[in-house]
Amino acid sequence: MRKVGLLGGTFDPVHAGHLALAHAAQTQLGLDELRFIPAGQPWQKPTLRTPIEHRLAMLRLALADAKQSQANGHWQIDERELQHVEASRVLIRHPTYTVDTLRSLRQELGQDVSLIWLLGTDQLVNLPTWHDWESLLTLCHFAYVPRLKTDGQTYVYPPAIQALLGERTTNRASALGESASGYFFSLQMAPHAISSTQIRAGGSAWHQLAQPNANQASNLLVPQTVLDYIQQHQLYTVAL
């Protein structure tokens, strides 16, 4: 069965943590295809301030770099959530829901394809708050990576997620290619403390990252081409 990885997010901006997750999933799951799905108007983040065109441009730059350096020819951007927002602007801005995105993908790709939604534990603990969340496992698998809280502590799963993990976790990556949906799988990856929120909060300090004496580790937060774009368009000049 063909395996399609799905990595959704605002990508505001795309950063090293997103790309590390994508590489981990590609390597450990043997994905045939990986789609990055930039969020249109996520209902839990109703006040996105970076315009769609900038988020999309930065994602294109990051993937172009990744394909060039890692030969990830099957990585692509899926713009269906952005198109949903554009279509709804003439009337009223409707939020986008992951469950609707998955249903749209199922309609496009059919029932004989394994869809694997990639996420971190910071999102997994909040899964019960997602719209129609109990339908999600009928549409996809979930492959997740460990993430730490900002204070360095680990996340505690709510009872509903603990129960599902107990019932539906598999330790075999091959199992995700034997059925179209229904499993949880833990990816092996070092925890990343980086987040888009933290990067945006860097605000006016962005210009310092390109200076010759700047801390080189800071440059690794985002690909160089993305950093150049941020500076060129003066994004995140004020903490959001």
Notes on the structure:
The protein has 240 residues and is of the alpha/beta class. It has one domain: Rossmann fold (3-Layer(aba) Sandwich). It contains nine helices and six strands, in the order βαβαβααβαβαβααα. The protein has helices at residues 16-29, 52-70, 80-88, 98-109, 121-124, 159-168, 196-201, 216-219, 224-232; strands at residues 2-9, 33-38, 75-77, 113-120, 141-145, 184-186. The chain has a six-stranded parallel beta sheet with strand order 3-2-1-4-5-6, sandwiched between helices. Helix 2 runs antiparallel to helix 9. It starts with a strand and ends in an 8-residue tail after the last helix. Mean pLDDT is 84; it is low at 204-218.
Q: What name does the CATH topology carry? A: Rossmann fold
Uncertain stretches of 5 or more adjacent residues: 204-218
CATH architecture: 3-Layer(aba) Sandwich
The figure for the number of domains is 1
Overall pLDDT level: 84
Give a count of the beta strands, DSSP E runs of length 2 or more.
Answer: 6
The geometry reads as: globular
CATH class: Alpha Beta
Query: Could you give the order of strands across the largest sheet?
Result: 3-2-1-4-5-6
For this structure, the quaternary state is single chain
Strand residues, percent:
5-15%
State the end-to-end distance: 43 Å
Percent range of helical residues: 25-40%
Order of helices and strands: EHEHEHHEHEHEHHH
- What structural class is derived from the secondary structure elements? alpha/beta
Q: Radius of gyration, Cα only, in angstroms?
A: 18 Å
Pfam families: CTP_transf_like
Function: Catalyzes the reversible adenylation of nicotinate mononucleotide (NaMN) to nicotinic acid adenine dinucleotide (NaAD).
Enzyme class: transferase
Catalytic activity: nicotinate beta-D-ribonucleotide + ATP + H(+) = deamido-NAD(+) + diphosphate
